[in-house]
Amino acid sequence: MNLIIDRHESQVRSYCRSWPATFERARGSQVWDTEGRRYLDFFAGAGALNYGHNDPAMRQAVVDYLLADHVVHSLDTYTPAKERFLARFVEVVLAPRGMGAFKVQFPGPTGTNAVEAAMKLARKVTGRDRVIGFTNAFHGMTVGSLAVSGNLGKRGGAGIMLGAGTNLPYDGYFGPDVDTVGYLDSLLEDTGSGLDKPAAVIVETVQAEGGLHTASMTWLRDLQAVCRRHDVLLIVDDIQAGCGRTGTFFSFEPAGVTPDIVTLSKSLSGFGLPMALTLFRPELDVWEPGEHNGTFRGHNPAFVTATEALRFWEDDTLTREVDRKAAMIAQTLDRLAVAHPVLEVERRGRGMVQGLACAEGFATRICAAAFELGLILETSGPRDEVVKLLPALTISDEDLDEGLELLVRAVVAAVPATAPATAATATQPA
């Protein structure tokens, strides 16, 4: 408990209620509180710290930049920091993926700014107002983003009717045998369906906040085909699943699709500094100068660290590491599912955003037990029903092994004494 913060900060704060410690220092995947206690971080700033805390190269780059009295705040004026970032981003990320001609918009510092810009642009391009979202989706906390999000609690916080958004069933929502893309296709084809032709469809390949539901590659390809057939723009929200979280830089790469618009934020700056992008095909760049702007769309320290972070994408080394560590995570989660049937566990996600969907109440208990053991985890899903693992992509094998063992111990602590699994069965090392 922090008396000063508790007295003065709004009741809206949330994470500190799950983790009642005052965090003071951090390095890599380790965090220390003011009492000197060490924690392993399997939260990574809600996906904003894919490269861990205080990466030395990024830290040195931004320190050098600040000490040289370079420009920090610049709106959308020219700066060398922006120039270097854009040149490097095109060279390392966009061009090798056949997206070298894509335009880059800096809409403001957060993910929801990127989503709002994407939908606003889609509406301007098409002259249509509706955007299709999906069940359990989460795209941000501003009104437009909430209109295409699925969580009723978050949607209700808007306090007004959320219009111009329609949520349809995500892949697997009705089970494996129902073709939800075919359902969307039928609605768009039928003039009697009551569904107005939308400007765009917005989708996450992994619903990181919505319970770790994961779209299949076939479903994503089919979704792109339906959008193209009906002249509807496809927006992929890669804010949490992108920047390598699923292995490749963009989470949609394994499907072989190329969205019309992509949103990025979270780990884009690499260092936890606010930064967001909206990427789109060049023919969609119909903005008038100043038509969509924001005071903090030129945060140069973020450009500096983002440029340094791109070193991780010069080759496929990090992708291969993510794949290897993802297999380690999956092995442990699968073992837990077998060992604790009372939890009604299902492993979800892919890459290094995976988790355990549990019977009601267990996920929160597991995360609380994990914190007591020194492991920082959060829940996911509309009912907080998923234990979500989000470690840094660069986590060492030693820290990953230790964190997974702490997770096993937390699950054992949260399971009722009458559960059929024994602690000995459940605590085999990963």
Automatic annotation (TrEMBL):
<dbReference type="Pfam" id="PF00202">
    <property type="entry name" value="Aminotran_3"/>
</dbReference>
<dbReference type="InterPro" id="IPR015421">
    <property type="entry name" value="PyrdxlP-dep_Trfase_major"/>
</dbReference>
<dbReference type="GO" id="GO:0045303">
    <property type="term" value="F:diaminobutyrate-2-oxoglutarate transaminase activity"/>
</dbReference>
<dbReference type="GO" id="GO:0030170">
    <property type="term" value="F:pyridoxal phosphate binding"/>
</dbReference>
<dbReference type="GO" id="GO:0047307">
    <property type="term" value="F:diaminobutyrate-pyruvate transaminase activity"/>
</dbReference>
<dbReference type="InterPro" id="IPR005814">
    <property type="entry name" value="Aminotrans_3"/>
</dbReference>
<keyword id="KW-0663">Pyridoxal phosphate</keyword>
<dbReference type="InterPro" id="IPR015424">
    <property type="entry name" value="PyrdxlP-dep_Trfase"/>
</dbReference>
<keyword id="KW-0808">Transferase</keyword>
<dbReference type="InterPro" id="IPR004637">
    <property type="entry name" value="Dat"/>
</dbReference>
<keyword id="KW-0032">Aminotransferase</keyword>
<protein>
    <recommendedName>
        <fullName>Diaminobutyrate--2-oxoglutarate transaminase</fullName>
        <ecNumber>2.6.1.76</ecNumber>
    </recommendedName>
</protein>
<comment type="similarity">
    <text>Belongs to the class-III pyridoxal-phosphate-dependent aminotransferase family.</text>
</comment>
<dbReference type="InterPro" id="IPR015422">
    <property type="entry name" value="PyrdxlP-dep_Trfase_small"/>
</dbReference>
<comment type="pathway">
    <text>Amine and polyamine biosynthesis; ectoine biosynthesis; L-ectoine from L-aspartate 4-semialdehyde: step 1/3.</text>
</comment>
<dbReference type="GO" id="GO:0019491">
    <property type="term" value="P:ectoine biosynthetic process"/>
</dbReference>
<dbReference type="InterPro" id="IPR012773">
    <property type="entry name" value="Ectoine_EctB"/>
</dbReference>
<dbReference type="InterPro" id="IPR049704">
    <property type="entry name" value="Aminotrans_3_PPA_site"/>
</dbReference>
